[in-house]
Structures are given as C-alpha cells and as structure tokens.
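Worked example 2:
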Amino acid sequence: MSLVVTVYAPGGIVMAADSRMSVLRSEEREEDNNKIKLQHQLVLSDNAYKVVELRKVGVGISLYDAGIINNQPVDSHVHRFEEEALTADDDVLTTADKFLDYFGSNFPKVGVGFHLAGYRQEDRTSVPYVLVGHTLREQEPKRVNSSDDGRIQYGITRAGDTQVANRLIDPKQLPLFNAMPVQDAVDYSLHLIRTTIDTMRFEPRFPSVGGPIDVLVVTPDGVRWVQRKELTGG
C-alpha cells in the first residue's frame, strides 16, 4: 500500500508519496488434518520510488497499488515506458493515454493507480492538468482540477491508504487552495503523509505507509525535486 498526495495551487502542482513497499505472502498450514491458508503482509523495503519525473515531457507521475511487476519495482517500468513510448512532442494528455496503453498491453492484469500532472500550452497560456486513473479501470483518466464548465480549480487529491489523511481533512475547514503559495502546498502534503506515518505507529494495524517522503513540484517552467531520497554508502 502507499499514500500519494497531489496538491494543486495557482503557483504549481505538488506531488508527494511515501516509500514503503509491502507484499502479501501466502502460506498453507495443516491443523487437525485441515489445510489453512494464511496471508501475511510484509514490509519489503522503505526505499521505493513512487513519484517519477518524466523528463521528456515535463510531467510528474505518482504511483500506488502494485509496487512490484514481474519482480521489478514499478518505477523501473515507468522509466522504460518513458524511453520506449514518449517523445518530445507529447504533453500531459497524450502521456496519460500512452501510459494506459503501455501498461494495458504489457501488464493487462496488473493494477497500477496513478496521478499525472503537468502543464499544456493552450492559446499561449500554460494550463495545469491533474489527471487520476487506474490501469484496470475501463475509462479515461479523469481531470480533477477542472470544473464542469472548464474553469481551473485548486485543491487536493489523494490515493492509497487514505484513512488517516481523510481524518485530517475536514471538508468544512479546507485550506484556501486558491490562495495557497507553493511552499504551503509542499508543507501540507508533507504534513498529511508524515502524520499518517506517525499515527500508524500507534494503531493496531499493519503500517502500510512509511519510509522517506519524496516531493516533486510541477510548474509551467518544468519539474523539480523539493526532496528525494538519494543513494548513500555505509
């Protein structure tokens, strides 16, 4: 499981995620001549990359649900998708379509949820797009930062294990996203994920969210990392 949070404010789009990779392990035991199937959820790593920068197109993508595909981390398949399927002529909309086609063709039975964010030039204006989708849903990605009449909206979307985050977000006391500076959007996304990790420490259930928090900011000028775990040596 994961927690991915995307906050879209006037100055930019903030994409954040935790780093915990967990697996479901099954085993059979025999008790009193009866076979019992047991399932255990295990933490495999706290160093997974769930936010990926697609440099060719200046787009960010956050991933949840399947963390491993064909015994490889899901982000490695996203990088391969970028190399094989994307060109400099693609934008945030065509990237979303190609992403679904690529994963649907190569991994038709694997469920990968995603947030995809970037800017698109329309009438000489950089227009923000925040799209959400899932590889197993037979529908186009949904744009969540636009009203029915096409006006840009600002706010937040989240996915994965959102139980704690949903407790922290009171629909009657939402932040003023329309007036939120990008730094506050970064701090808010960090707050939701960090508090989720801290809360799970004390709750009697599997801690599905954990590890370092990666944060990517997408603006009309491109994408840049605010924080990202780096390789270190002992």
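The chain has a mean pLDDT of 95. The radius of gyration is 19 Å.
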